[in-house]
Amino acid sequence: MAKTTIKDVAQLAGVSPSTVSRSLRGIGGLSAGTVSRIKEAAEHLGYSVSPAAYRLATGRTGTIAVVMPYITRWFFAELLGGVEKVVREAGLDLLLYHVGDTEMRQQYFSSGLLRKRVDGVVLVTLALTDPEVAALRSLDVPVYMVGAEVEGFSSVCIDDLDSSRTAVQHLVNLGHSDIALISGDPNEPMHFTVPLHRRRGYREALVSAGLTVRPELEAHGPFTVEGGYSATVKLLSRRSLPTAIFAESDEMAFGALKALDRVGLRVPEDVSVVGFDDHPMASYFELTTVAQDVPGQGRLIAEQLVSSVMGPEGAPAVRLSAQTHLVVRQTTAAPVRRPDKHGTAEGRPAHPSPSTLPPGVGTHSAPRPASGARQRKESRSK
Amino acid sequence: MAKTTIKDVAQLAGVSPSTVSRSLRGIGGLSAGTVSRIKEAAEHLGYSVSPAAYRLATGRTGTIAVVMPYITRWFFAELLGGVEKVVREAGLDLLLYHVGDTEMRQQYFSSGLLRKRVDGVVLVTLALTDPEVAALRSLDVPVYMVGAEVEGFSSVCIDDLDSSRTAVQHLVNLGHSDIALISGDPNEPMHFTVPLHRRRGYREALVSAGLTVRPELEAHGPFTVEGGYSATVKLLSRRSLPTAIFAESDEMAFGALKALDRVGLRVPEDVSVVGFDDHPMASYFELTTVAQDVPGQGRLIAEQLVSSVMGPEGAPAVRLSAQTHLVVRQTTAAPVRRPDKHGTAEGRPAHPSPSTLPPGVGTHSAPRPASGARQRKESRSK
DNA sequence: CTGAAAGCGCTTACAG
DNA sequence: CTGAAAGCGCTTACAG
């Protein structure tokens, strides 16, 4: 199974390596006979060009890198899927890099890990520091961003600010005035900008509706089910209860639904909930949410990248925006007037139409008093 | 921003390129002074070796490929995360390939896409045909498999057969005899073996409990929430209703829960449900399920790969197995005796008191040793 | 301990 | 339309 080289092919076809090279890439004038002879020889020998040699000779790697702070979370996995599709169809290789914490991040950007290794890189959701931007520029390859923007780099973003405003405005329009926010941690070390924009959208919507921004209506946690659950528990332990909750991601909204269910609050009768993403499980929960096409964003940015990498000329940086739209399902409704502002679930009047109770909520677990602790009974067999 | 080469470093340090090369990789005897001078020069110039030149000279690519039929599904994303971690820590690059359908698959294996491109490849969940195995062997690099086994390739698998048997035995122990299966499509074109093993485990458990395997108790669909939903709808439209359902994945189980909820069947009072995976949302739904550590499997196989790729000598193929354990939560309970076997949901008597189901406690199955089962108690810290 | 030289397998002006 | 030759940037026996 010795590796067959271009020389072997040349010899078999009775031509020079140069001719084989040109023929295989369809360059220059070639006599039809030679071409087919070469093609045959190459196939017969099972020849494929050595990427290493090709790269060394041409300086092009035929490879792009995708750098992400998470791999398994819904948004990131979907985005990766979209990027992969376009990149593969273009015949490029995709190198995956996970930059999970600030330490990895630092060592990642300081060492020129990508140097001479890729023709382009797409960064997902990473808010770059100035030194990081400088390091990236010194790579001398086009940089593409999703969910973040940097001068001189192409990007595709949704309008987080406006989308969040819309989501909260929906709650305002329904008549809510005690609208809580479940957001990402504003002080997390990776400095993601998405949560910042979504929070700003929330606050702006309140203000423009003549409502006041109240810190006790805001809680935060990681962008996960657990994060949404514990943030909601926090909200529910404060002095005034919200009639609606805007969660910055669907997974957080799922956690909120669970927490509400645990304390016996009904959705949407007692509390309305809006999420963000349109995660596949969102329709399961009948969750009202802001929908975005994540694989589409991946494809979009990858197409930019591909056309610039394959093209003869580096294309100028562009800023693309992806659409979002509010999907109204069954977790939002007009608030029910409550006689007792501090009332517990039991004290509330029954809602006229309980059939709007979202499926899956409230059926599988006995409601218990919320406490910070997770209740989890597990038993293992064997 | 001209690329700095080893010559530049050599010149600056006043030595030959050979010496720089040796010094940078810590080979041969080196005088301390030279080493530090070289190191300084390299840092000053921001030098990093050209991967292409390195690969061409050494024949090693420092790269591994991960080939997966899905990227975004939970199992695959988690596995990828585990592999990535180990691979990155070893300083290797990870090339991601998505082989989504039989067509991609064919063109993928026929063209030597991986040829000369990687030092090793991990295949996830792909049942290979003989020609595919041959193509892989001709790559002349070690091949690693997760969730599948091939003679001569290293692999890590869970025991799908035994795990499924255990899950169904749990239902049998609770007193169920009408146990349905929600499985993957046995005729899907990719020929995944996991669903086959899980189905066999289901059937074997029935048989060994003296129950008969009834086709009308089996339904299939894709390994998704939707798939589980529609498979359950199929089950519910047949002549006899099951009192328990074993779903081959948690996501399918979620779909089952939804379908049951839609028709007013209560879980676990009317129907018990067991899933497979211990997906993060499983605890959300209080789903009884077979837990597996997916990122751990990714790390395990990656460690094998790394040690063989980095090591001087190709290690022999090994077959590793990963543990599973049944996690009993609240979606399984003893069946309630029904007067009317063909009764509809509406026709059923209301369950006397759901509180007769002590949360978690009363639902434990008597752990019964399955044949050939590994005994292992796992406890979760944190 | 260190250099000069060959070689890894391609591509691409440069000639013809 | 096709070849010979140089060069891409490394590594590694081979000498010294």
Helix and strand arrangement:
Two copies of one chain form a homodimer.
Chain A lengths: L5 H8 L3 H8 L7 H14 L5 H8 L4 E6 L5 H16 L3 E6 L3 H9 L9 E5 L5 H8 L5 E4 L7 E5 L1 H14 L5 E5 L10 H15 L9 E3 L4 H12 L7 E4 L2 H13 L9 E6 L2 H5 L3 E5 L1 H17 L8 E4 L1 E4 L55
Parallel strand pairs in A: 1-2, 1-3, 3-4, 4-5, 5-11, 6-7, 6-8, 8-9, 9-10
Antiparallel strand pairs in A: 10-12
Chain A binds a DNA duplex (16 and 16 nucleotides) through α2 and α4.
In a few lines, what is going on in this structure?
Two copies of one chain form a homodimer. Chain A is α/β, with parallel strands linked by helices.
Description:
2 copies of one chain form a homodimer. Chain A is an alpha/beta fold and about 375 residues long. Among the domains of chain A are: about 1-50, lambda repressor-like DNA-binding domains (434 Repressor (Amino-terminal Domain), Orthogonal Bundle); about 160-290 and about 325-365, Rossmann fold, CATH 3.40.50. Chain A contains 13 helices and 12 strands. In chain A, the strands form 2 sheets. Chain A has a 6-stranded parallel β-sheet with strand order 2-1-3-4-5-11, with helices on one face. In chain A, strands 7-6-8-9-10-12 form a 6-stranded mixed β-sheet, with helices on both faces. In chain A, helix 1 (about 5-15) crosses helix 2 (about 15-25), helix 8 runs parallel beside helix 9 (about 195-210) and helix 10 crosses helix 11 (about 250-260). The longest helix of chain A is centred in the last third of the chain and has 17 residues, at about 295-310. The model of chain A is unreliable at about 340-380 (pLDDT under 50). Chains A and B meet through helix 4, helix 5, strand 2 and helix 12 of A and helix 4, helix 5, strand 2, helix 11 and helix 12 of B. Chain A binds a DNA duplex (16 and 16 nucleotides) through helix 2 and helix 4.
